[in-house]
């Protein structure tokens, strides 16, 4: 039988005790400001990747500059589904919680 040295045993017990005492509900409420800013950034990035010719006109960084966007029906259906997802996230936000924050302006454009 293998026996742990006393120091390693105490460290193992302390680690197990510390992790077992964590609160049961570790789910974090979504911060509406973070959500609004994230959705705004995802939309802009997604838009310029979906329609790179627009990115070329305004010089948006990190987008493909070697072709036109795919405006075929399947691609546009995927794009609209992404838009619907973003709108669902934004509609779940209480706009009053964004007042006076950096997220208020991009949220107002929805």
Features:
globular; disordered N terminus; single chain; mainly alpha; 110 residues
Main sheet record: none
Give start-end ranges of low-pLDDT stretches: 1-28
SSE pattern, N- to C-terminal: HHHHH
Name the overall outline: globular
**Rg calc:** 24 Å
Class per helix and strand makeup: mainly alpha
Nearest-integer average pLDDT: 80
The total beta strand count reads 0
Domain tally: 1
Distance between the termini: 66 Å
Share in helix: 55-70%
Strand percentage? under 5%
Number of helices: 5
Report on this model:
The chain is mostly helical and 110 residues long. It has one domain. The chain has 5 helices and no strands. It has helices at 6-20, 32-50, 52-58, 73-91, 104-108. Helix 2 (32-50) packs antiparallel against helix 4. The longest helix is centred in the middle third of the chain and has 19 residues, at 32-50. The chain is globular and about 40 Å long. It starts with 5 loop residues before the first helix and ends with a helix.
């Amino acid at each position: 039988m293998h026996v742990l040295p006393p120091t390693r045993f105490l460290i193992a017990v302390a680690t197990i005790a510390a992790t077992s005492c964590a609160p049961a509900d570790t789910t974090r409420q979504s911060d509406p400001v973070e959500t609004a800013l994230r959705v705004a950034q995802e939309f802009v990035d997604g838009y310029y990747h979906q329609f790179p010719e627009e990115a070329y006109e305004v010089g948006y960084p990190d987008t493909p500059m070697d072709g036109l966007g795919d405006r075929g029906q399947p691609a546009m259906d995927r794009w609209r589904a992404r838009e619907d997802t973003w709108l669902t996230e934004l509609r779940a936000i209480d706009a009053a919680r964004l007042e006076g924050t950096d997220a208020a302006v991009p949220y107002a454009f929805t």
